[in-house]
Specification:
Number of strands: 22
Helix content: 25-40%
Strand content: 25-35%
Number of helices: 10
Shape: globular
Largest sheet: 7 strands, antiparallel
C-alpha cells in the first residue's frame, strides 16, 4: 500500500509539474505574440508642427510597400490589403478608392523624405495609438485587422456597361438647379487642354451653355446623401499671374500636368463622398457656407458652395465675375467615371442621370 501511495503521489507531482510547464510555455508564447503585435515608431517634429512618422519606418514595421512619384508628388501606399493614395498639398486621404472624412492627414515632404501625421495610424489603418516621449506605440494585427475594417470595394469600373453605370449614378441630382448638361465638347470629360498639356477631367457648367442664371450667388448643391471629405475654407489663390504661369510652363515642359499643380488650378473645392464608392469633386468655387465642414453629412438639398472662378486666370487678376462656372469631377472608387467610355457614351450617361 505504501508503495502504491508513493507512486500515486509521484504521478500527481509529475502531472502538476507538466501542467505548470504548459502554462509557463503558453505564457511565454502569449508574451511573444504580444511583442510581435506591439509596434513602435520614432516620431519627428517638423517645423514646429505636430509630430510625424517617417513613411519608410511605417512600411518596414508593417511589411508594407509604397511608390512615390516625384513629378506628381503622389504617394501610393500599400499596407496589408489596403491601398492608400495621397497628393502633396491635398488634405484628403484616399483608402481603397474611397475618401476618408478627416482633415488631419496630409503628406509632408521634407529633405526628400516622406512623412505622415500620427493620425494616419488611427484613421487609416484603425489602430489605437499612444505616445510616450518621442515614440508612437500601437498594436497591429495584420490580416486580422482587415476583418474589422471596411471591405475593399468589389466594383470594378471597367466591368460596368453604360446601363449599369447609369444605374449606379442615378441617385445623383443636378448640382445647379435649372441648369442642363452642356454638350459642347470642351465642357465634357476628355476634352484637350493644350495650355497645360492635359485634358479635361470633368463637367463644366457655364451659364451660356447650361443655363440656370449662373453668378457668384448661384448655389451648388451636394447632389445626394453623403459626407464632406474636403472643404477649402482657407483657400489661398495664386499670388500673381506670374506664379500661375510658372506652374503652367512647367506642365508644358514635361508634357503633363502634375497632380499637385492640377489641384491648385481647381481653386477652392468641396469634395463629397457617397455610398457605392461615388465621389464628387466641386471646383472653382467662389465661397463655401460656414457650416460645411469635413465630416458634415449632406443631401441633395444641401448647399455646399457657390459658383466662382477660383484657380483661373480671371480670379488671379481679381476679376471675380468673369468666366464663372462650376467644374465637377465624378469618381467611382478613385477612377473618373468616364475612364472606359467614348464621347457618345459619356453624353448618354450624363443625359440619363440628369
Amino acid at each position: 500500500m505504501k508503495v502504491k501511495k508513493m507512486v500515486l503521489i509521484g504521478l500527481l507531482i509529475f502531472i502538476s509539474s507538466c501542467q505548470s510547464q504548459i502554462k509557463e510555455d503558453e505564457s511565454i508564447q502569449s508574451l511573444a505574440e504580444q511583442s510581435d503585435l506591439q509596434k513602435t515608431i520614432v516620431l519627428h517634429e517638423l517645423n514646429g508642427e505636430q509630430k510625424f512618422i517617417l513613411v519608410d519606418d511605417l512600411v518596414e514595421k508593417l511589411n508594407g510597400d509604397y511608390k512615390y512619384d516625384q513629378i506628381h508628388r503622389t504617394l501610393e501606399l500599400q499596407i496589408n490589403e489596403d491601398n492608400f493614395y495621397l497628393v502633396d498639398g491635398v488634405p484628403v486621404l484616399e483608402k481603397n478608392g474611397e475618401y476618408i472624412a478627416s482633415d488631419e492627414i496630409h503628406l509632408k515632404i521634407t529633405n526628400e523624405k516622406l512623412f505622415l501625421p500620427t493620425q494616419f495610424v488611427e484613421v487609416g489603418i484603425g489602430a489605437t495609438t499612444t505616445i510616450v516621449d518621442d515614440l508612437l506605440h500601437f498594436q497591429w494585427y495584420g490580416q486580422t485587422q482587415q476583418v474589422f475594417n471596411e471591405e475593399v470595394n468589389a466594383i470594378q469600373l471597367e466591368d460596368l456597361n453604360v446601363e449599369q453605370l447609369i444605374d449606379h449614378l442615378s441617385f445623383l441630382e443636378k448640382p445647379i438647379k435649372g441648369a442642363e448638361v452642356s454638350k459642347i465638347p470642351g465642357h465634357l470629360p476628355g476634352a484637350p487642354r493644350p495650355y497645360r498639356n492635359g485634358y479635361h477631367e470633368g463637367i463644366d457648367w457655364y451659364d451660356y451653355a447650361s443655363g440656370g442664371g449662373i453668378s457668384t450667388d448661384t448655389p451648388v448643391y451636394a447632389m445626394g446623401e453623403g459626407v464632406v471629405v474636403r472643404a477649402d475654407h482657407n483657400f489661398v489663390e495664386y499670388h500673381s499671374a506670374e506664379e500661375r504661369e510658372k506652374d503652367l510652363s512647367y506642365a508644358a515642359e514635361i508634357g503633363e500636368t502634375p497632380e499637385y499643380i492640377f489641384d491648385k488650378l481647381r481653386g477652392r473645392q468641396v469634395w463629397v463622398q457617397y455610398e457605392g464608392g461615388v465621389m464628387n469633386r466641386f471646383a472653382h468655387l467662389h465661397d463655401i457656407p460656414a457650416d460645411i465642414q469635413v465630416g458634415t453629412k449632406v443631401n441633395g438639398a444641401t448647399i455646399i458652395g457657390y459658383v466662382g472662378n477660383s484657380g483661373t486666370s480671371d480670379s488671379v487678376d481679381q476679376n471675380y465675375e468673369a468666366g464663372l462656372h462650376l467644374h465637377q469631377d465624378l469618381f467611382i472608387y478613385g477612377e473618373l467615371f468616364w475612364t472606359y467610355l467614348d464621347e457618345g457614351e459619356v453624353i448618354e450617361v450624363l443625359e440619363q442621370i440628369w
